[in-house]
């Protein structure tokens, strides 16, 4: 069953609103309501960034697949951009520039993933990302220890780090860069940081991707700085048993974390957090908060 809704003058057909998408009972209608509620904070982080969609049309426990190309049936008013897929191939992807587009995308049932660059400058990253992924029995608590070490290390190079939960098990650290830098140079710098963290905390950190090295350690994944990679966007829902969110957090919350549940945020938590804290990642959007990428340091 579908309904026709008008969003900022755009007519949208929204379907199957009562369909349960999460084992906890969260419905598609609640997914749409969530994205509309957080849109004022979310939209600036999506603006001008080509969107990749992790779609789960049959619910979080069903089939998942990534979609980068514009889905069939996209309204004519949805803005798109042609972006490089490889050296000689280009693709057209969605730009979520307004609330109607966000609601239309949410109706497809998606996680939202974006690159570290904007469509106008696909070779230049305006932010650096480090994905901290704990290997059991390590949890987000151990990620917090590593995150605080990285925050101080980045500050030593004149860079300011912001943090958000991954919406799964770990944390993402985000650093604004101004002016933007070539993605390959950002990746090299991020790798050097990951290697340095491994040397400083060998019993707690690994920078190597081999899963056999991860149990009990925090994997510092630097690879998402590559131009072809994407990261879960701030405020996106994740396809888990419950509607978890990739939620911005304060450094005081990270330093105080002693239990994984302290940094486990769900859709219902975010409107209150936004009312109380505002957008904790607003600094990422202000070029004045960004700093140049430092000279590369050898691992």
One letter per element, helices H and strands E, the order comes to EEHEEEEHEEHEEHEEEEHH
Sheet with the most strands, sense and barrel status: 6 strands, mixed
- Percentage beta strand: 15-25%
Structural class computed from helices and strand pairing = alpha+beta
- Based on Cα principal axes, name the global outline: globular
Number of helices: 6
Biggest sheet strand order reads 11-12-8-10-9-14
Residue runs with pLDDT of under 50 for 5 or more positions: none
Q: Supply Rg.
A: 19 Å
Q: How many angstroms does the end-to-end distance come to?
A: 57 Å
Quickly describe the structure:
The protein is of the alpha+beta class and 299 residues long. Helices cover 25% and strands 24% of the residues.
Description:
A six-stranded mixed β-sheet has the order 11-12-8-10-9-14. The protein is α+β, with helices and mostly antiparallel strands and 299 residues long. The longest helix has 19 residues, at 28-46. The chain is built from six helices and 14 strands. Strand 1 and strand 2 form a beta hairpin. One of its GO terms (molecular function) is ligase activity.
């Amino acid at each position: 069953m579908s309904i026709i809704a008008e969003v900022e003058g755009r007519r949208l057909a929204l379907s199957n609103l009562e369909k349960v998408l999460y084992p906890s009972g969260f419905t598609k209608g609640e997914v749409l309501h969530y994205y509309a509620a957080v849109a004022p904070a979310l939209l600036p982080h999506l603006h001008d960034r080509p969107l990749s969609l992790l779609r789960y049309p049959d619910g979080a426990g069903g089939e998942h697949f990534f979609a980068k190309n514009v889905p069939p049936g996209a309204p004519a008013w949805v803005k798109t951009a042609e972006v490089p897929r490889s050296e000689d191939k280009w693709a057209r992807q969605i730009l979520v520039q307004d609330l109607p587009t966000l609601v239309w995308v949410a109706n497809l049932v998606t996680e939202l993933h974006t690159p570290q660059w904007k469509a106008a400058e696909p070779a230049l990253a305006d932010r650096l990302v480090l994905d901290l992924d704990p290997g059991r029995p390590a949890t987000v608590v151990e990620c917090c220890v590593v995150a605080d070490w990285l925050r101080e290390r980045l500050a030593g190079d004149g860079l300011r780090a912001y943090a958000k939960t991954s919406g799964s098990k770990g944390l993402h650290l985000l650093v604004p860069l101004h002016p933007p830098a070539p993605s390959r140079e950002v990746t090299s710098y991020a790798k050097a940081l990951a290697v340095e963290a491994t040397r400083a905390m060998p019993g707690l950190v690994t920078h190597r991707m081999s899963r056999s090295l991860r149990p009990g350690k925090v994997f510092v994944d630097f690879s998402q700085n590559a131009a072809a990679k994407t990261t879960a966007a701030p405020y996106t829902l994740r396809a888990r048993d419950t509607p978890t969110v990739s939620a911005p957090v304060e450094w005081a919350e990270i330093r105080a974390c002693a239990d994984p549940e302290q940094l486990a945020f769900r859709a219902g938590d975010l409107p209150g957090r936004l009312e109380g804290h505002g957008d904790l990642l607003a600094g990422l959007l202000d070029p004045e908060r960004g700093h140049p990428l430092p000279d590369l340091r050898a691992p």
